[in-house]
Amino acid sequence: MNLTLKVWRQKNANSSGKMVTYKAESISPDMSFLEMLDVVNESLTLKGDEPIHFDHDCREGICGMCSLYINGRPHGPKSAITTCQLHMRSFHDGETITIEPWRAGAFPVIKDLAVDRSAFDRIQQAGGYVSVNTGGVPDANIIPIPKVIADEAFNSATCIGCGACVAACKNASAMLFVSAKVSQLGMLPQGQPERWSRVQAMVAQMDAEGFGSCTNTGACEAECPKGITLINISRMNNDFFSAKLFREEKVHDHSGGSE
Amino acid sequence: MSLDAKIPQGPLAEKWSKHKFNLKLVNPANKRKYDVIVVGTGLAGASAAASLAELGYNVKAFCFQDSPRRAHSIAAQGGINAAKNYQNDGDSVYRLFYDTIKGGDYRAREGNVYRLAEVSVNIIDQCVAQGVPFAREYGGLLDNRSFGGSQVSRTFYARGQTGQQLLLGAYSALNRQIHKGKVKMYTRSEMLDVVTVDGQAKGIITRNLVTGEIDTHTGHAVLLCTGGYGNVFYLSTNAIGSNVTAAWRAHKRGAFFANPCYTQIHPTCIPVTGDHQSKLTLMSESLRNDGRVWAPKTVETAEKLRKKEITAAQVAENDRDYFLERKYPSFGNLVPRDVASRNAKEMVDDGRGVGGSGFAVFLDFADAINRLGQEAVAAKYGNLFDMYYQITDEDPYKQPMRIYPAVHYTMGGLWVDYNLSTNVPGLYALGECNFSDHGANRLGASALMQGLADGYFVIPYTLGDYLASIGPKPVDANHPAFAKTKQDVVDRINSLLALKGTKTVNEYHRDLGHIMWEYCGMARTEEGLTKAKGLIQALRADFWKNALIVGAGDEVNASLERAGRVADFLELGELLVDDALMRKESCGGHFRLESQTEEGEALRNDDVFAFVGAWQYKGDNQPEELHKETLDFEFVHLTQRSYK
After folding, report:
1. Which domains does chain B possess?
2. Interface contacts (A, B; CB < 8 Å)
3. How do residues B588-638 score in pLDDT, each as one tens digit?
4. In a mutagenesis test of the B interface, which of A11, A39, A40, A58 is the best target, namely the one with the most B β-carbons within 10 Å?
5. N or C, which end of chain A has less CB nearby within 10 Å?
6. Considering only CA atoms, which of A49, A18, A51, A47 is closest in space to residue A37?
7. Among positive and negative, which fits the CA dihedral B532, B538, B542, B544?
């Protein structure tokens, strides 16, 4: 296959970027999208040019590091996969492919196609855990958890933190990402003691990071490579309003210290 | 130099309890006066960083990825072993210990392995308390499944994403400590050297992968939790970024590297399609619970399959050879990984391989789908089937998977004693980064167990003993060793950036991988290994003349990052080959063609080789010196491993 690529190139966070056109030639349909970029990068390197920078690591759809906006869609044209799982057989010979980084104010570009998603970590740090220390916990089977609840919590827990939901949203909202963790822990018995304070702490941090509001367009759900559903957002809203109306606690420092 | 593993005396079941009592403690008010550096945030690193911070130490944690959650532990699929005996099927701490010693082909320490089995039960409790959503039965209790090398069901799992769920659990514990200010997290930071002062580890040098800045960090102890070195083979199931640099730099500063030739080739991976391939994808061992491995009985049938004249479904039942079930009736498809891999290779060598290239055998689910229904199979393995479909464009519900062995895990690593301390005081190695618990072959679902055992339940005890002995006096960042080591790092980066040859770093890496796989893969010979050694030396010399590295040092530069890692692989590769040459026996993942039984199984030589081979660096391009730690078996009788 021979392809034309239009790629966002940007030296660093402080410089402005632009789209640059490259040819990708003799591409095998069995290559993954990232392997196609590897081939382009090898030829750029041999010419002494700087390779196109992009984030990637596991290349099997689980680490959440790859993050390309391909032809106007996060992780490309297919649903329920990450960019690294996308194969060139999903494109046609002669096609022009546009590749951009995630576009969101809260995800500043680091270089070319790589963005800074540390805002996601800070939201998790604000409360995405059960406050237990190592040791001194009860036997794993002491609290039975109905299978349907455990399975549903698992569905929420499969979020890989890639940020496709934010990139897909016209408001750059992080609601799907935040609600996945709030839901997972909110459904499990182990998450109950901090359920109401957790949702407040995480939402407050989400707002502080500059993510937009949710207007229920559902683009996040449509583009999520792990199939995280909008129900999570409903659950989070439910917990959030419930906490604000009836159970508001001082948003304490979850780690056990004082605010 | 003698290697003292510091295994406590006494009965197996009392060693760890007794040892814990004998270890010195740091009083709670003094803990905050100590700084601990943790490099890597996978299962071992994240669990260690969180647990040590909970105790009150100041932790600085480092990862090269953009978030600690991305460490490659996240990709582990199948499960985690624990001797809970929830299934009432005869499991016990002793059985898990015994299975692990035997699975490792009697090349691991009894004391370490028993402790691992002992704390395995605590790990499951810890993870459940964190909100890890393990698979459950309808009664609400935890579910288990079976894995290779064992006849009980002791593997806890979370669909095919167990590593992800366990890592996110450890990541959440780490996040809590970051929020509390007890862990300072450095992301996109790569450790490039360890600083030793008077023979003790006192800090590290890192490169900020965004700005290119070279930074110095001090600590009373340094914990390396940096994973394995499987990417020395270029193609492996490891993440692209997985590398040996931290461990290798420590090795060059004095830490011994043990058993590098013990590499695990996982039997069930998706076969290679072409030269463009950047990594291989594992299909979890759990699939062998329900999938049946087979190859055609005859070369003629295989030939027709390769040419696509017939499909797998058209091969009649009695034209199929379910070779694992045939040769190993009691373990069947669930033999350990090394055995399953070698048998697949035998089929291919015999001309009975399938797929376009002939480098594959089948893993067939037709029976399971008939027996359980497609829905039940999907519930167990759905995400793995989807992953397979994405990569191959073939539907495993309709036709058997094609699988072939690929490099997956490395049992070798930095030598550590019972306290997880390397021979350099203050420098520790946890998880896959060390060599300690799996012997010559790791059983499935034991890597997650070991990573978390080291981080949650071993290092929090053993580190205190060392810290108490050195006292809380702050580390002097002005000691000349810091400036000197930093300058060494800067010089090395500059010499890499000065390489303006004609061959890309990726090409060197791929060439190295070809050499390693060809001569030091699933079957090794004196002749092949000797040849490989020469080839690696020549490739390394060529790299330092003719490699092409673009870009500058003071910016994001993936080309430079890759170059440093590949340069280290080019050195490690030779040591791996040396170790394989030295070990003139077959054991576990190390198979020397010269040493096999009449039936083609690995033949150990316990009289000569029942030792840990720990290598000491003696200078660039100098032969390394071998130190032997004798393995004493007090409790287990050494036998020829049999899974028949």
Report:
1. 267-406 (3.90.700.10), 486-609 (1.20.58.100)
2. 229
3. 999 999 999 988 889 999 999 999 999 999 999 999 999 999 999 999 999
4. A58
5. C
6. A51
7. positive
